[in-house]
Amino acid sequence: MDLSWWNLIPTYFDGTAITIGSFPVRWYGIMYIFAFVTGYMTLNYINKKEKLGYTKEQFDSLFTWIITGIIIGARLGYVFFYKADYYLANPTEIILPMTHDATGAHFAGISGMSYHGGLILGTIFTIIGIKRNKLDLWKTLNLCFLLAPLAYTWGRYGNFINGELFGEVTTSPIGMWFPLAKDSLVTPPVLHHPSQLYEMVFEGVLLFVALYNLRRIPILYDKMPCLYLMGYGVARFFIEFFRMPDAHIGRADLFGMSRGQTLCSLMILTGLIWLIVLIVKQKKAAKTAPPASF
Question: How far apart are CA 96 and CA 222, in angstroms?
Fold first, then answer.
């Protein structure tokens, strides 16, 4: 089978952007920088456009909290959601970029970051940052969740450049040949779904567009956290059918779901319940509010 330029796109990239001495700087790490800069600039744009009154000092402090929470949460989420047994047996590898074998210690980088872990601890740290900077909690949290898909887009693009987290085997011409796949040397070539790109588009770009437009509906204007949890959860749940599950877990969770689908199911349920509670509270408040006087 002859492969087209599309099928071979993953071979055009090297996961290492630059090497400083013997230390490789990975594209995935650089994408984190792009993600935070995108979020910062977009939030600042909305602040000016809607005249929210946030200062640069407040932004800088808030984003320091957000970045810290996401990075620590993403790492710990991977440790406890996906490889708890391994890291409990090798606790130093949670924070140290080294692996050990019979020949000694080797630099391997800190591999393994969990979106869901970053979401949980990132949200907690965001709330702390909002309160420490005396910002309006719900209004600021709404804006942060509105911008989350844009930042997330960079992360999945970084996965694609690294050639990791690719999808299931496919015979479709949309498939790509990933050098890191265990079946990469099989003849004829085996193609995999570029599920990183699916996630980048549906969980990133399109989800942001949807949230931005839903924000124009009065009853949904201040419901971005709920809508984000449901929107991301639904998109990721279905894309997981095309994404290769973690080899050591597979699709062994409840009802044959992957670990990602299990966590997304909880996201959808949480977002839906949260949305219903908020709408019911608002309607009750509107009924009990005193009539306007003229």
Answer: 41
- What pLDDT, on a 0 to 100 scale, did the predictor assign at position 78? 83
Please name the residues in contact with 192: beta carbons below 8 A apart, sequence gap of 6 or more: 166, 167, 168, 169, 170, 175, 176, 177, 178, 181, 244
By mean pLDDT, which of 32-41, 51-60, 250-259 is the weakest? 250-259
Structure tokens at 129: 């940052």
pLDDT, tens digit, for every residue of 150-187? 999 998 998 899 888 899 999 999 999 999 899 998 98
- One-letter identity of residue 30: I
Classify strands 191-192 and 169-170 as parallel, antiparallel or unpaired.
Answer: antiparallel
Nearest to 71 by CA among 94, 89, 55: 94
Cβ neighbours around 66 below 10 Å, total: 24
Q: Which two tokens stand for residue 76?
A: 């710990």
Q: Max CA-CA distance within the chain?
A: 83
| Beta bridge partner(s), residue 106 | 99
Q: Does the pLDDT value for residue 66 go beyond 90? A: yes
CA torsion sign for 72, 78, 84, 86 is negative
Domain locations along the chain: 7-23+148-285
For residue 15, the 8-state DSSP code is S
Residue pair 194/167 in contact by the 8 Å Cβ criterion: yes
Query: Cα separation of 28 and 37, whole Å?
Result: 15
Q: What Cα–Cα distance (Å) separates residue 91 from each residue in 75, 82, 113?
A: 13, 14, 16
For residue 277, what are the CA distances in angstroms to 119, 177, 226, 272, 274? 21, 46, 10, 9, 5
Which residue type sits at 294?
F
Query: Which amino acid is residue 44, in one-letter code?
Result: N
Measured CA to CA in angstroms, residue 181 lies from 94, 115, 144, 217, 267 at distances of 25, 22, 35, 45, 30
